[in-house]
Amino acid sequence: MLKCLRNMKKLSLLIVVAMILFGCRKEINPDSGKENPFRSGTLIDAGLDEERIMDLEHQINAGKYNIHSLLILRHNKLVYEHYFPGEDAVFPIPVGRVEHHVDSLHDCRSVTKSIVSTCIGIAISQGKIKSLDENVFQYFPEYTKYAVGPKAAITIRDLLTMTSGLEWNENLPYVDEANSERQMSIQPDVVDFVLSRNSLTKPGILWNYNGGCTQLLAQIILKASGLPVNEYAEKYLFKPLGIKNYQWYVREDGIVWAASGLRLTSRDMLKIGWMYLHEGNWNGRSIISSEWTRLATKWHVDTDDTSEGYGYQFWCIKPSIAGQLRDVAMADGNGGQRICMIPSLDLAVVITAGNYDEEGDISDDVLNEYIFSAVKK
Q1: Is the pTM of this model over 0.85?
Q2: Would you say the C-alpha torsion 364, 369, 370, 373 has a positive or negative sign?
Q3: Exposed/middle/buried for residue 313 (C-beta within 10 Å: 0-12, 13-18, 19+)
Q4: Under DSSP, is residue 9 helix (H, G, I), strand (E, B) or coil?
Q5: Helix (H) or strand (E) holding 341
Q6: Can you say whether the dihedral through the CA atoms of 119, 124, 130, 136 is positive or negative?
Q7: Is CATH 3.40.710.10 correct for 3-32+48-374?
Q8: Which residues pair with 256 in a beta bridge?
């Protein structure tokens, strides 16, 4: 999946320095992950090839894949959960070999974008945001000097699908001063930086990976609700899901980094997948609307790769699984972080890994070669 693009996802060195100096993370109750919120089941009863999954486990243990956790949820039961030691990093400082376990926090990287999108969906259902077709400048009247030409028509929907039409280049290494996200990371006013970009196309037409779109979405949450996106997520998403242990990088000036920076446990990542599989519900409580779960994970626009599309900050593919083409949506982060959801199979998979900024995409290989092929029906 756009391997070269996602292999480079990281923040600039200046943000890393800020993280080290100021330790601006949110952490709550580090012992919370030990209770299992899922019913247990077996691979065989779930219609999965146990031998295939055990072969994958053997390959991981043998060092072929630097996978840190693998969780499989099928028919409302957790049928596989395993944690593995491996080389890791804390966004993106290498920390060496780590013994991962059930209550370990793990970098989500750009999975964070999907959480920001989910917060937009919640704000829509609460009426804090009236419509995805609202003009972005409605939320940023102090920047109307930039509302000229095609740029003046950018909507929230365009930000969600990364079709803003703004000039933005994240195809360069992040040590390159011309990389747009690196440039944004050192700006005192991130909104000004994003909205001041030139328009290359009309909004809503051409997809271009743009972390600035996600940062604007987070600032819209702040404008609409009065809460920064991390506090909004805690109140309306994390608490209802029972997520008590997380970290989210916050700059010294209070800007919550939206393109990445979130750390969750694997089980809590799986709660997000469960919620989307169940049309926004968790334990009988509606957290987001069923319409949002459908729209957010729908293939809205083609990416640069003809084999995949993009929804509302979710990646979309359509592989053949168990003899049929299936709609698959994924929250996806650099290094191999995945929340994979396949509603037609009532299947969700979480992978965390330590393949940061490497060539290739091992977690995609694992999904295709082992997980998808293990589904019998």
Answers
A1: yes
A2: positive
A3: buried
A4: coil
A5: strand 337-342
A6: positive
A7: yes
A8: 250
Tokens at 17, concatenated: 């320095």
Structure tokens given for 270:
């799986």
Is the alpha carbon torsion for 327, 328, 331, 335 positive or negative? negative
Residue 191 identity: V
The whole-angstrom separation of Cα 356 and Cα 305 is 21
Beta-carbon count within 10 A of 141 CB: 9
Asked whether the bond before 150 is cis by omega within 30 degrees of 0, the reply is: no
Residues in the chain: 377
Beta-carbon contacts of residue 332 (< 8 Å; ≥ 6 apart): 1, 6, 110, 111, 114, 314, 315, 338
Nearest to 194 by CA among 218, 176, 230, 228: 218
- Which has the closest alpha carbon to 339: 261, 260, 243, 267? 267
Torsion of CA 339, 298, 318, 301, to 10 degrees: -110
Pairing of strands 77-83, 39-40: parallel
Domains of the chain, by residue range, sit at 3-32+48-374
DSSP 258-302: -SS-EEE-HHHHHHHHHHHHTTTEETTEESS-HHHHHHHTS--EE
pLDDT tens digits for 182-199?
A: 899 999 999 999 999 999
Helices (DSSP H) in the chain: which residue ranges? Answer: 3-6, 13-22, 50-61, 111-126, 156-160, 180-185, 190-195, 211-225, 229-233, 239-241, 266-277, 290-296, 362-366, 372-374
Do residues 360 and 66 make contact, with C-beta atoms less than 8 angstroms apart?
Answer: no
pLDDT in tens, 317-355: 999 999 999 999 999 999 999 999 999 999 999 999 999
